[in-house]
Amino acid sequence: MDTLAPPDNRPANLEHGGPGTQAPAAPGPAAERRVRIRQVTMEGVCTLVGAALGGIALTWVLYQRILPTSGAVGFWLCGYVTFLCLYALAGVVQWEPRDVANRLVGVLLVSAGLLVIAVVADQIGYTAVRGYPALHHLNFFTDTMALAGPLDPLTSGGMIHALVGSLEQMGIATVFSVPLGVLCALFLVEVGGPLARPVRTIVEAMTALPEIIAGLFIYAFLILSLGVGASGFAAAVALTVMMIPIVTRTAEVILRLVPSGLREASYALGGSQIRTVLNVVLPTARSGLATAVILAMARAVGETSPVLLTAGFTKDLNANPFSGPQTSLPLYIWNYVRYPQPAMVSRAFGAALALMVMVLLLFALARLIGGKAPGELTRRQRRQLRRAREADQLVRSDREAGDRSLALELTGADRGADAQ
Amino acid sequence: MTVEFVNPSGAGRHAADAGVVDGIGGLRPADPAPPDVTAELPGGPVPGSPPPVDVTAQWPGGSVPPDRPLVGLESRDVSAWFGTHKVLERVSLRMRPGEVTALIGPSGCGKSTYLRILNRMHEMVRGASLAGEVLLDGQDIYRPDRQPAQVRRRIGMVFQKPNPFPAMSIYDNVASGLKLAGIKVANKDALVETSLRRAGLWNEVRSRLRAPGGALSGGQQQRLCIARSLAVSPDVLLMDEPCSALDPTSTRRVEDTIAELQGQVTIVIVTHNMQQAARVSQSCAFFLATHDTPGHIVEAGQTRGIFEDPQDSRTADYVHGRFG
């Protein structure tokens, strides 16, 4: 009956039983040959490669030599279409029509995937290459731009002030938006009622709100009307406006995933709604909610336009978000990439790479937290569990000795009571 | 053999038991004068019922329930609707204190709806309404001044699908009822142990009380849910097809648990399995609904009578497996 199997005890080779990992305990006849389901045949590969080569060659002849057309994009587009046609033609003569359609769709999907990967890799690679001159000077991470002019070499100046600004603004925006967003999601899921529908509609509309509107709103409301002044705080409030709908939408989805059976169980135990939410719903959804928050943070840290109107711009390190302008990474990039001097552009690209790394880290964190099922323990919790168990064992073995005599007395006493 | 779980107060077993009684009993609204059911059923098995499992073997403290009067449940003319669709028609049934009452009948005949009416879970469905009254200890649980949470604390429920709280350990699952209902107990460890013992799960989980509740097998999870319900010491335990998601071995363990609880708690169990109804229950009610009549009780009475000598031909057909 003992079925408790911690996930890490599972034999590792069960998951990826490739041809290399064969069951060790297989005496008797020679190991079986595994059936190969998806076979790559020579003719399949040749058809694909041949069609690709033929397509490009034909396009080169027609596009470059015969037709009055030119341009790289057009060439590759026409080449791809020609390749597909040739591939279909070559397929029809050797395979069934349904098989041809299958393979054709397969080729389309694979090339779409490759295209997306290529675009992302190109973006990151381009940023890295352009930003490298700035990045390999340590002062880029420790200096501000206060003493560095446009003509100064990359050995002076840096982005520490923008990094500090970004982190502070993101922190403040998170502190504001997470409670509001999660509470709003709780209202939508747990309370509901006739008001839920308009609220959900507004939240959805806010998700699609152009970011510059958020910036304009805070600019008009905080800076012009209340006279707060362009500052990190104003920028954080603008980012909050951006983050609330994201947090709300994701948290709503996560909270809906909590099985209703758990809520029922809680109510059946005599729990009130607030206790059910606090003790059952939120703990069950905790890792998903953390993911929601981190994804919203990753989104906010890269926003430029809300910050553009509200944060002001400075070359100095301003660690106080409540007074004076404060630069953040997107603002830094936006400002310096427009300079004609290559050193400035390099700095902008370096900051862009730093921003991407930051977003990547946040995403990795989200995966790390969100990939865990509720009840699954972290390494630290497992350690605590083991310690607690050991403590229990000690107490128990201490008691067991003394307990036996007590139990004898007790059962005797109870028998006496029963007899009465 | 007995094992004392961590007992911070250092007191012995007597103190532990007293803690359970005080902790929960103190929170119950003071009922004027509970009907004198104790005289009729002094915590022992109902005459004529199958011999109960020897609880003393597992529980050195003798008969488990602290000396509390057993409480019965009665429904009078209960009808129920979902929107305009009537699903139950004037169901009147007495569930005797300390007995196991089985509700049987084909799917869709309103058994589960009826069960959910008994602890005010029915009203949580949107568009659901009902008529009639449900008397716990002679008092209507649908009286306007009664809080649903208070009612549910006295009438616990075990669901078809085991639903332990995944974010809590086994220990916390059992203690969750206290936390959810805002009950303070002097000796929580003792209460957890008592509840797990009563649910017949203690020996299987005693060494891993801090493991997550979701890591147990289906049958163990269901008994964990039973233990969780027992921890708030309800007067009545409702079970909605508790074994339908379980394999035969686990089913037997849960049935053993029910047999042990009989005489300690009033149990109402919905089941599709007629052998199960015959095995675990003393009383039985046969529900039936046709396409133009809402669910109603065709026949109710002693289980033996229903199965061996049914008065209604439809009951006979159903219990002999000729339809349903």
Automatic annotation (TrEMBL), chain A:
One of its GO terms (cellular component) is plasma membrane. The keyword ATP-binding does not apply. GO terms for molecular function: phosphate transmembrane transporter activity. Residues 163-366 form the ABC transmembrane type-1 domain. Residues 1-29 are annotated as: Disordered. Part of the binding-protein-dependent transport system for phosphate; probably responsible for the translocation of the substrate across the membrane. It comes from the Bacteria. It is found in: Cell membrane. The lineage of its organism: Bacteria, Bacillati, Actinomycetota, Actinomycetes, Micromonosporales. One of its GO terms (biological process) is phosphate ion transmembrane transport. Belongs to the binding-protein-dependent transport system permease family. CysTW subfamily. It comes from Rugosimonospora africana. It is a multi-pass membrane protein. Pfam families: BPD_transp_1. Keywords: Cell membrane, Membrane, Phosphate transport, Transmembrane, Transmembrane helix, Transport. InterPro entries: MetI-like, MetI-like_sf, Phosphate_PstA, Phosphate_transprt_permease. The chain crosses the membrane at residues 40-61, 73-93, 105-126, 172-196, 208-227, 348-370. This is Phosphate transport system permease protein PstA.
UniProtKB/TrEMBL annotation, chain B:
Keywords: ATP-binding, Nucleotide-binding, Translocase, Transport. SMART domains: AAA. It comes from the Bacteria. SUPFAM superfamilies: P-loop containing nucleoside triphosphate hydrolases (SSF52540). One of its GO terms (molecular function) is ATP binding. GO terms for biological process: phosphate ion transmembrane transport. Pfam families: ABC_tran. One of its GO terms (cellular component) is membrane. Residues 73-319 form the ABC transporter domain. Residues 23-49 are annotated as: Disordered. This is Phosphate import ATP-binding protein PstB. It comes from Rugosimonospora africana. Gene3D superfamilies: P-loop containing nucleotide triphosphate hydrolases.
